[in-house]
Structure formats: C-alpha cells, structure tokens
Amino acid sequence: MFSQRVRSVMERKKLLTASPDTTVSEAAKLMAKKNVGAVMVVEQERLVGIFTERDALIRVIAQGRDTQTTRLSEVMTTEPQTVDPGKTFGSALLMMFENGFRHVPVVEEGKVIGIVSSRNALDPDLEEFVAEAQRRKHIR
Description:
Blueprint: H1 6-9, E1 17-18, H2 24-34, E2 38-43, E3 46-52, H3 53-61, H4 72-75, E4 77-78, H5 89-99, E5 103-108, E6 111-117, H6 124-139
Parallel strand pairs: 1-2
Antiparallel strand pairs: 2-3, 3-4, 5-6
C-alpha cells in the first residue's frame, strides 16, 4: 500500500472545498454532512488554505471565537503543504508524520484534485470494521 501512488489512494468523493469567506459554522456543517475532517479553502480554483477539525478546536473554540462570524480566512492554515498525485502514498504519510498533520491536499497543475489523510493508511479490513461500527452506532 505504501508504494501505491497517491492518485490511487486519495479520496475524491470526500474532497470538500469552500471559499475563504465561508464561516466556521457553515464549514463545520458541511464537514459533518460529508463526514470529513478537513476543508480545502479555494479561491479562483486555487488552493489558498486548509481548515481542519484541529483548527476548529485550537484556533476557534479554544480562543472563544464566534463560529457564526469567524471566516475560514481568519483561522485556516495558509499555504498548506501539498502532494503530487504521482508520489507514493508512503512519502505522503512520512510528510504528514514529520510535520504533525493528518490531511494533505493532492494538487495537480495548481488545482486540488483530492485529499489524502492518515486514515487512508488503515488496513482495508480494519477500515471496513470501523465503517460497520459507525453504521451500527447510527442504527441504535
């Protein structure tokens, strides 16, 4: 798996984008609806930042900011590191580990085409187990 190309591992359907003017509240609702941990902040089709669950916790909630009025541009990570879809998944994981983040935008020719997260490293059987556990939790 670690030698696979990022293109074959990345999540296209979980890619969530928003403009820098989106409020934290709006972004959180979109993240919850799509069940994702990060939003790619895009302006004129170019990646300008990333906003994650950790950003919401540390840069918004812990600082007492108002989620209804705080814009992503105020609390996002600007100029996030990215990975090329032709790189190996192992190199993307190493980048995440060395820099302490869990999500990396996949960018090709200046445009975001997907996202890779440390969750992608889960063994497929374990990932299926987690997915089944989530489904059962919602049934109860």
